[in-house]
Amino acid sequence: MSLKLKKPLVLGDDGLPRLIRADETLDATAKEVDQVSLVNGETSAIRIGSPVYVSGSMTAKLAKADGITTKNTIGLVTEISIINGASGNIQTDGQIVAGKLDWDAALGLIADPIGNPNGTGLMPGAMYYLSETTAGELKVTPPASGWIQRIGTAVSETVLDLAIAEPIGLN
Fold this sequence. Notes:
Blueprint: E1 9-11, E2 17-19, E3 35-40, E4 46-47, E5 51-54, E6 59-62, E7 75-77, E8 81-82, E9 87-91, E10 94-97, H1 100-106, E11 127-130, E12 138-139, E13 147-148, E14 150-154, E15 159-162, E16 168-169
Parallel strand pairs: 3-6
Antiparallel strand pairs: 1-2, 3-9, 4-8, 5-6, 5-7, 7-9, 10-15, 11-12, 11-14, 13-16, 14-15
């Protein structure tokens, strides 16, 4: 049995579809974004940008780098808010976009309505880690105790490139 390759259709310069020629190549940006839907197992809402781990059957709880079970971040919440008992999307890799004020909340920063009412957001180029002091928060400095878990790197003030690493235990 032989396999016959089919040529894809492309749009020509005239805007009409045509078969791709043998000497042409396709050039496109491919982005993979993996998400999983989990139920909020916390007693209150979980906000966008919050790191979570899987607790029980398809239940998300706020991750924290100080515990053996709470340190296993699966991803970050992509919904504005997931109320208790409701399902919501958790992004496990790729780039996650949120507003500056949303990232400020995920970093545990207090909004400054006088100095910067729009928030400060992420620091481009900075690496972000799971907080060991506050569940569901990120921080720029790695924890000094508990577990170090790298979450991702800021591409801009509003975009975090997720690259969740295995937690490393500290003595």
